[in-house]
Amino acid sequence: MFTHYLRTIALTTLAFLFIAAFTISCTKKKGLTDFGVVTTEQTNSTNLALNLNGRLIKGNMPTQSTGSGGSITIQSAFQILEVGAGSELFFPITTNRDSSICKVYFQVQGADAYWEAPIARDSFGQISLHILIPKILDHSSFPIVFAVVDCNGSVSATATTTISVTDNPIYVQGASGNPRFNLQFSSKEVDFDLHVITPQGGHIYYSTDSADGGTLDVDCICCDFPDENIYWEPGTAPSGKYEYYVDFYSSCGDPSAAYILRVYNNANVVQYHTGTLNSVGQDSPHFIFNVP
Fold this sequence. Notes:
Shape: globular
Number of domains: 2
CATH superfamily of the largest domain: Immunoglobulins
Strand order of the largest sheet: 1-8-7-11-12-5
Order of helices and strands: HHEEEEEEEEEEEEEEEEEEEEEE
CATH architecture of the largest domain: Sandwich
Structural class: mainly beta
Radius of gyration: 23 Å
Number of helices: 2
């Protein structure tokens, strides 16, 4: 009798675990916008999952304020970002007072709490927002609202970006390589050009799409998926110093846009720069990558 009782409990437990696993599996495949009506609970759960070196504060995000230096304005940021589940997302933000920005507030739109996190800043002073996208948010799409805060506590007006979590993010186009230089920018209403100067002095860009074994295989002129790509087949790149940068060649409507510039060794990102160009003819800083 006791053995039969234990067997019944074991079978019941296994059935419960199977149902729970099936439910979790199905739920994981539903993104925030896949539900007919997004509930507050779903929004708050997504907001909670975005923890990255910050603290969660209950209540509404602070409203815009004015400090001694005047109002802080977010001038440029990506409007939509595609990213793979389980990865770290960081994208550039440009304000009228970058040097004085110390932290960022952000939340999933409609959540009843917000995150406060330190701002990320690269060696050129460009500020970025970093968010960890956990695997549980696979196949999700959701808007986040964010504002930046200066070191005196003054808060900017908010901006909104949509994050789309997908198996095949389109944010990087073109062939793989070693090295591979890839440029992504935030607006289809600008023409940004990627330039790479090889150790031998070859200059690869829209006018000369190949030199010293490297090839420009994606060239975007105010296109729907703003991306440019220059690559070398593994083992073919000359050794030495490569100089690379972004040029704001022309505008098709927008006066400025943000960019993300990556250098890959096959599938691995080995250098990463972000920034914003605000006028036609402006170049980004000229970066250096060494191939041994």
